[in-house]
Amino acid sequence: MTKIDNTEFKVVLVLDRLRSAHNTGNIFRIAEALGAEIAACGYTPFPPHPKLEKTAMGADKMVKCRHFETSYEAVQTLRQEGFEMILAAEPGGSGAWEMEYKFPLAIVFGNEALGVAEDTLQCVDGIVSLPMLGEKASINVGNAAAAVMYAVAAKNGITK
Known about the structure:
Blueprint: E1 11-16, H1 21-34, E2 37-41, H2 50-56, E3 65-68, H3 71-80, E4 85-95, E5 105-110, H4 118-121, E6 126-129, H5 141-155
Parallel strand pairs: 1-2, 1-5, 2-3, 4-5, 4-6
Helix pairs in contact: 1-2, 1-5
């Protein structure tokens, strides 16, 4: 993958009440790989955190991270900062590979059991989804973040 210019490909991953420091650490690694930032919301683990540090493998020290009490607060702050598009990653939305993205971009990833908070869903610009063909129709939030982020990168010409 080519080095990307963060002024053109600015992305913030908003993590809404993720319980697992392991999943959060994985997302820190994805964010570092693609030059994204993180907004940790609610009880989502954020640096410094010993379990997060173990799975993030140093990315927790490299990725810009802010903490917000709620994902709604994070989204409102990002809007005030001029973000062009704020999406939630949830079932039933536009496919990650079909969507046209605007930057700066924020994507909200929710708790695996609860999803994205309802008040946050009411104020995003749209829903981005991954195809779910199985009966369970559920994947790990870290895997979902990776798939969505690489779809965003591919749709915007970030290739090797």
